[in-house]
Amino acid sequence: MALLPYLQADTIKMMQYNMMYYTTAVPSGCTVTASYLNDKDLNLKKIIKYVQPDIFSVNEIGSQSTYVDRIKNNVLNTDGVTYYQNCPLTNFSGGSIANMVYYDSRKLGFHSFFYINTSVRDINAYRMYYKTPQLLSGDTIFITFIVTHLKAGSYDSDEATRAQQTAALMSKLEQIGVADNYVFSGDFNLYSSSEIAYQNLINYSNTLYRFYDPINQPGNWNNASQFAEIHTQSTHTSSSGGCFSTGGMDDRFDFILVSPYIYFGSKKVKSVNESYHALGQDGNRLNGEINNPANTSIPDSIANALYNFSDHLPVILEFAIDNTVSIADFEDPFLVQVYNPIENLLTIELQLNEADQYTIEVYSIDGKRLLIHKNYFESGNSVLKLPFELPSSLYIIKIQNTKKQTVVKKAVKF
Q1: What is the pTM of this model?
Q2: Any idea what DSSP says for residue 233?
Q3: Which CATH number fits domain 10-321: 3.60.10.10, 3.30.1050.10, 3.60.20.10, 3.10.20.30?
Q4: What is the pLDDT of residues 185-230, one digit of tens each?
Q5: 10 Å Cβ neighbour count for 361?
Q6: Angle between the 36-51 and 300-309 helix axes, to the nearest 10 degrees?
Q7: Please, are residues 62 and 87 in contact by the beta-carbon 8 Å criterion?
């Protein structure tokens, strides 16, 4: 069997967006006209056509199906497009705004969902399957997209509520007991990476369920010039009709996080971390507006649409999908043998079609490289034994040849 390359055979582009009151049930002080939703539709349509997301997760959509259908029919499925579908709507927390996920049904299918009822809003999780060429024979790839809108505010009580919400999610994932391809996105309303709500996600005690931040830029994000390139709120320096938050771009509220399996690409989905960005954020907006002065990172029409639609910027991340081999082949345990507990060695068995030099790297589940070894292998069957004096845990083994063909495997040390 040849060393199987991790090929970017396809990509899924995700856009996460707080749509700022896509509902007529707006809070007191926000003045809306008869054309309010029509105007929002026109601006969002420009953004969607520009980005063309495969997965579109949103916050602050009205918690009634009429608003969900309106986005699908008036914005997404227009101008000849007919393939966007939506996931089920829930509102067990009883608010006027909710979360939703739309998807390109040519690439993805809906499988199932679960939710977490919190004191503020539901946390929604949607298990999707990728429509692989082998789908008819039962071979597919699952990804669960989880979307939330955490409690807003900077008071201690607000931080405590956010911590309770993320703790509830992590407990639910561990209760389900399936460490898998998870994507967690939304308006987190975080001011700093030191917040307990954020630490619950990235430093969770069970490493199998931790989340990774693709851009890995911890710190105090609020009003800090060193984080100007990742701020997502606010697009306005002054309010318009009392709806928009003010103060300009000075907060990183909007996130897309990924599970270790996606971060390392060990289950056929890998985050393309360098693709992560906030649309229109050129790093020159600290305490300023998204369209003034002129934004050179996007067309003027898109900058104006972002300004007029919401006080948040959408966040975008792409995922590489490996659909070139069957899951059975990809998970073949004879490609890489797991840890040998008797000899205290990591035993790696490769079956290769051609000779080449291979780099073997061992990572902890939190992304730290613990070992790197380079070795030249002849074609055929080869066995390499490496010292494995490491604590009991799950480890990620990355093997790459000079052509950059890569296999990522898991090894459990008991």
Answers
A1: 0.79
A2: B
A3: 3.60.10.10
A4: 999 999 999 999 999 999 999 999 999 999 999 999 999 999 999 9
A5: 16
A6: 140
A7: no
